[in-house]
């Protein structure tokens, strides 16, 4: 009887453990969710800056009117690519460019790209659409950069990194619990087979 009670108690404990694991997984950290959304918006804005600068460079080289503007736009494209890669927070990149890990540094880089995108607008009548795109892209990235700088000064980036570490350790604990649960079920099946 005691053995049956133990066997009956195990599935109940297992179901409560897996239920707790499901509850922990169901809710995410609101700060991390907001940061991921903002990072996605910033990356899209930087991609828009890349497109605008590529179009400007192509027009500059095609017309042959201002080669220096075309070269300047090529540099803006390369630096805007760094902004996009920084928003992915890829560990390999962050290891080599520690400055991009800090939000104030990342924000200053975004402001620099926004200024480069806005610089030297060509006010000719046939390029008004490109000038409008330059303005939209540069002011959007400027806003993102200012938000990053202010958030970096307020240490929100530090808070985000701390919560990310906590989330990673929580996910690892859930995986360990699931592995333990699987091993317990295997042992239980072996015990049942031995008794039979």
Figure out the total of helices: 7
% residues in beta strands: under 5%
> What's the number of extended β-strand segments?
0
| Terminal Cα span | 16 Å
What oligomeric assembly is this protein in? single chain
Largest sheet: none
Q: What is the ordering of alpha helices and beta strands?
A: HHHHHHH
Identify the overall geometry: elongated
Transmembrane segments: 33-58, 70-88, 100-120, 140-159
Protein name: Golgi apparatus membrane protein TVP15
Keywords: Coiled coil, Membrane, Transmembrane, Transmembrane helix
Coiled coil: 163-190
Description:
The chain has helices spanning 2-26, 30-63, 67-88, 91-96, 103-118, 128-153, 156-195. The longest helix is centred in the C-terminal third of the chain and has 40 residues, at 156-195. Helix content is 86%, strand content 0%. It contains 7 helices and no strands. The chain has a domain at 29-160. The two termini are 16 Å apart. It is mostly helical and 196 residues long. Helix 3 (67-88) packs antiparallel against helix 5. Residues 163-190 form a coiled coil. The chain crosses the membrane at residues 33-58, 70-88, 100-120, 140-159. This is Golgi apparatus membrane protein TVP15.
Summary keywords:
196 residues, mainly alpha, elongated
Describe this structure in a few short sentences.
This protein is mainly α and 196 residues long. The protein has a domain at 29-160. Helix content is 86%, strand content 0%.
Helices and strands in order, then pairings?
Layout (H helix, E strand, L loop, with lengths): L1 H25 L3 H34 L3 H22 L2 H6 L6 H16 L9 H26 L2 H40 L1
Helix pairs in contact: 1-7, 2-3, 2-5, 2-6, 3-5, 5-6
